[in-house]
Amino acid sequence: MKNPIRAALQRGETVTGLILFSGSPMITELAAAAGIDFVIIDMEHSALDFDTCAHVVRAADAAGITPFVRIADVERTLILKLMNMGVAGIAISHATTENCAKALDYARYAPEGERGACAIVRSAGYSPGDWNAHVRKSNDEMMVIPLIEDTPTLQNFESMAAMPGLDVFFIGPTDLSIALGVPHATFDEPKMAAALEKVVVAARKHGKYVMTTIGNKPDPVYGKSVRDRGVQAVVLGTDGHLFLDVCKRLNSVKQP
Q: What is the CATH number of the domain that holds 95?
């Protein structure tokens, strides 16, 4: 399966995304209708299971929006099932060079990795076809996206940025801001601004890309400022967060 996000980033475009807590195919379709480019199905903080995830992936493919999945732990069976489902990639929470290396190994077919081979899965079109071409395409298109959420990972980010196979790095502002002692700060806060600059500079040096969420300050002006500082993949927030924000603002109709 093709990964339009990889191609768009390589063309120098800005892409936008949404994190799904609801597991709703309808929300996925609405995101696509709004012109959003990708969804990240959250299997870390939410209670979503494989069946729900599979429905969202199918809805995403039908609507023309790219599906990723965020996971909390790097487990071989978990990653195998997600890749066979047809996701475009996986986001690794609290990433380190060690767990990213494992994720790359589990997500790619031999000789690059140790992903188990099976032709009768969704990602292979349920058909053997040209197996070697499928292997090459899958290994080339899939993404492992590390979440930069901890001080040691930030301090040693240069080594992660240099790792082959890692192309997009997701700064998780909530966890990182807590780790830096400025809970829930935006990238306008000096420590967070410095962290963003560090990641962007190192990523650019190695021909890589930066992703982050602006959900901690859902404001188009702020979002554009983050984009202008070098973030090519802008996550607008979670479906729950955005729905809550809209409801709060519209509920002001009750005020005098």
A: 3.20.20.60
Place of tokens 């901890």: 150
Q: What is the phi-psi region of residue 63: left when phi exceeds 0, alpha when psi lies from -120 to 50, beta otherwise?
A: alpha
Q: Give tens-digit pLDDT for 123-173.
A: 999 987 899 999 999 999 999 999 999 999 999 999 999 999 999 999 999
The pair of three-digit structure tokens given for residue 177, joined into one six-digit string = 């801001």
Measured CA to CA, the distance from residue 199 to residue 157 in angstroms comes to 7
Q: How many domains does the structure of the chain reveal? A: 1
Question: CA 83 to CA 79: how far, in whole Å?
Answer: 6
Residue 124, beta-bridge partner list: none
Q: Are 93 and 172 in contact (CB under 8 A)?
A: yes
Q: Which two tokens stand for residue 187?
A: 């990238």
pTM (2 d.p.)? 0.96
Residue with tokens 């993404």: 143
